[in-house]
Design brief:
47 residues, alpha+beta, two-stranded parallel sheet
Length: 47
C-alpha cells in the first residue's frame, strides 16, 4: 500500500499528469488524501 498525503496549492499540470499516470498504472494499491485538517489540494493537486 502506498499512501500519499497532500497539502498543496497546486503546481504544473504536466508533472501532475505524469504522477497520476504512474499511480493508475501501479500494481500496488495507492491511497491519496488531503491532510492535516485545514490542508488543501488545489489546481494540479486535484488531478
Amino acid at each position: 500500500l502506498i499512501i500519499v498525503q497532500l497539502n498543496t496549492p497546486g503546481g504544473g499540470l504536466a508533472p501532475m499528469q505524469i504522477m497520476a499516470q504512474d499511480i493508475r498504472a501501479s500494481s500496488v494499491p495507492v491511497v491519496v488524501y488531503v491532510s492535516p485538517r485545514g490542508a488543501w489540494a488545489a489546481s494540479a493537486g486535484t488531478v
